[in-house]
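Much of what follows relies on a compact textual record of a protein's fold. Think of the row as the fold of the chain written in a discrete alphabet. An example makes this concrete, so a full record is given next.


***
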Amino acid sequence: MPTGLTWILLILLAITASQAANPSHLVRNLPGQPQVQFKQYAGHLVVNASAQRAYFYWFFEADHQNQTSQPLALWLSGGPGCSSVGAGAFGEIGPFSVDISGTKLEKRRDAWNKAANLIFLESPHGTGFSYTNTTSDYTIYNDEMTASDNLQFLLEWFRNFPEYSKNEFYLLGESYSGHYIPTLAMKILENNANGKNIINLKGFSLGNAWTDPAHDMRGDVEFYYSHSLIPEQTYNELIQNCDFSTMRPILGGSMNPNCQAASAITNRLISGLSHYNIYKPPCKNGSSITSQSLHTNMLVNAYNPCDDKTESYLNQRSVQASLNLASSGNSTNSWKLCNAKASEYYQASDIIVSMLPLYKSLIQKKLRIWIYSGDADGVVSTLSTRSWIKELNLTSQTPWFAWSHKDKVAGWSQAYNGLTFLTVLGAGHMVPQDKPQQALSLFEHFLKGKVPPAN
């Protein structure tokens, strides 16, 4: 971790950023990278000087002839504690994926930087290459701290890249970003109300977002039953005996015995499936992704545990040097896809808090809000999301309709006053990974503020 002179230099770089992209963060000679026309920047930015917390980001310019005028978007992966670089950039929407050898990069045909300039932020501290020099921070994680640090990162980033301050800005993510993004959006609006360092936030888009446990957990049970994964008796036992809103195992409490028994049956029956897409085979390497229980399955390792090639690539010293990590002064830059400690120590009462009051406030702010859902996800199911959207009691602007991509049904959608909802047919928890073409089309329509065409 940076100390002494190295830490002072990090702060000075942030203070003295000029009216152009920070040249010290330019990514040069990235090992195994195919030739591209766009630039990349990566490095640490200080989010809390007193605690010496610094977040790692990777920024890709838009692969577009009018790059400077394209929107700017920040992607946050969930977990809590899973890397936006590993899961978001390499696993889903970035311009590169890691080849099977773990040493080279391949171009992604349906990369989202074809439509926007993209920032991938590793948040909170301890995620990926992000760190803190305050040891006690590694046992303190909560939504308020994460949102505050994410806002501070953005303020620092725009100081380093002031040429993007007028671009339309959007927030993107999935899973536990269902907390990260609404809380950050509100922080941005509160910051903008001060009239200084205004961030041009226009809206956000979330996929299979953890939002409200009463809806999310019950919706998963409905999903299991409607897909004939559990019998009617078990379904009835779960509905009648489980208090989904409190998620007692998360809070360290005990479940109703009847709920516990029905949950055990459910966990046994679905143990042979990937919870993240029930139509895909589970990982066979013993990872916890296949052993997550009904009451904890949205936590920890919410990404492909069989994908160790990204970890191999990012732990190469030559790669880390190209990403400007050597200058951080940290000689032990060990990267993992997910940090289990971030999830373990994340404040339990925050994990179970409902985001619906925040949504009601954000909708009043006239932001563009799109919520999409892979309909094969058993972690935050489509039924879960439809349930909490219904509770918002929004006025419909369109009827429920099938939207299309290349003249084929890609999912279903309904637009409301203040929010647009879309499903993605056959996709799981990580929609862009399962349905890359449809996901890019959805993203492009989101940026335009126009629902995809009806089938």
About this structure: Residues 143-160 form the longest helix (18 residues). Residues 4-206+308-341 form a domain with the Rossmann fold fold (CATH 3.40.50.1820). The longest strand covers residues 40-48. Residues 286-293, 295-301 have pLDDT under 50 and may be disordered.
